[in-house]
Amino acid sequence: MSMSRNNVFLWCLTMVGMLLLAGCAHVISKPVLKEIDTTATFAQVLKDPDAYKGKTVLFGGDIIGAKNIQDKTVVAVLQRPLGRRGEPGAGDVSGGRFIVTTPGFLDPAIYSPGRKITVAGRVVGKEVRPLGEIAYTYPVIEKRELYLWPVEKPASAEPAVHFGFGIGVGF
User: Fold this and answer.
1) What is the tally of structural domains in the chain?
2) Disulfide: which of 37, 47, 84, 89 matches 55 by Cβ 3.0-4.6 Å?
3) In the predicted model, what is the mean pLDDT of the chain?
4) pLDDT tops 60 at residue 29
5) Residue 118: closest CA among 92, 144, 137
């Protein structure tokens, strides 16, 4: 069976569109996204975590540290605003810090400081920890879904385009 040029073009356009849409999909599943209380901002939860106990929230940021205790892992995160797909932003913008608890073992060598993380979970309370010379109140989020963003590769110092004449031989 042969396809006309218009059908081939339409098929290719459809495939490209699907790939673009897939690239824009959120990292948290649709069922969990539906449970999120979008009225609970990070600033509000940080100010009064107990008022949001039981609410499902979506936060993200940079991992500060991870520690395994008994049957769970505790991850401290520097909050960052999230983009459309749920990716934490970069730069000097942060609303504060929060803690994520997740059952089981997460390797601190992988969940290491500086890695970006997005988490959907239930607010379960607060934890006061020393931060420098102050007592800092961290909202505690019990993980429902968690996404660890891939490590960004540093830009190469080599130019992306090479010009030359002659025959090239490589070993």
Assistant:
1) 1
2) 37
3) 86
4) yes
5) 144
State the alpha helices, DSSP H only, in the chain: 5-23, 30-35, 42-47
SS3 at position 14 = helix
For residue 12, being part of any structural domain is answered with: no
Residue 28 contacts residue 120 (beta carbons within 8 Å): yes
How far is the C-alpha of 10 from the C-alpha of 21, rounded, in Å?
Answer: 16
Q: Is residue 11 in a domain? A: no
**Distance between CA atoms of residues 122 and 142, nearest Å:** 5
Within a domain: 2: no
Q: By C-alpha distance, which of 40, 60, 135, 137 is closest to 100? A: 60
Are 58 and 86 within 8 A, CB to CB? yes
Quick one: tokens of 44?
């509000």
Whole-angstrom Cα Rg for the chain: 22
d(CA 41, CA 48) in angstroms, rounded, equals 11
Q: Exposed, middle or buried, 159 (CB in 10 Å: 0-12/13-18/19+)? A: exposed
Strands 97-103 and 56-69: unpaired
pTM confidence score: 0.77
**pLDDT for the residue 105:** 96
DSSP reduced 3-state for 25: coil
- In angstroms, the CA 39 to CA 60 distance is 16
* Domain CATH for 133: 2.40.50.140
